[in-house]
Automatic annotation (TrEMBL):
Cell compartments where the protein resides: Membrane
Domain of life: Eukaryota
InterPro entries recorded: Leu-rich_rpt, LRR_dom_sf, RLP_Defense
Family, similarity comment: Belongs to the RLP family.
Pfam families, A to Z: LRR_1 (PF00560)
Identification of the protein by name: Leucine-rich repeat-containing N-terminal plant-type domain-containing protein
UniProt keyword annotation of Membrane present: yes
Keyword set includes Membrane: yes
Record's bilayer topology term: Single-pass type I membrane protein
Amino acid sequence: MSGHFPKSNWTSLLKFLDVIGTRFSGGLPNSIGGLKFFEDLNVEGTGELPDSIGNLVSLKSLYLTGSFAGSIPASIGNLTQITDIHLSDQNFIGELPFSLGKLEHLTSLTLDGNNFSGQLPFSLFNLTQLVLVDFSNNQLTGPIPTTVNSHSSLVSLNLAFNLLTETIPSSLGFL
């Protein structure tokens, strides 16, 4: 199966879309934000993540493969029902949006193998449901937030192959 994602008519009652392993090309159109009932989006493609991704307020799982690039829009913080975000091995750049700290139902966040820079968002480690975080193989800098110690649900934290500075907080031993 191959083709391009349609640029319009993304206003149906569609809840699930999985086109992993297909030959769809091009990015997600901005009109995808019209899918208000979307719960699960699994896409292999290219291009940037549109700002309208923040309109998918029912989304619970976001899984992207292929060659997505650009930055993650701050509107991702509007996805208040999301539990899983998997954006590994893409070409994303820039700083991680502070708005990730608004995703109070988030349990798994894998952003490894990208080109993210800047510091880890301290707000992220205040999320009480977060179990798995993988930011390995990026260009992140600065300290590991000391707020990690207050996060009792965290089971896996992978920060390998970044440019983090300062010492590892002793509070990590309390997880």
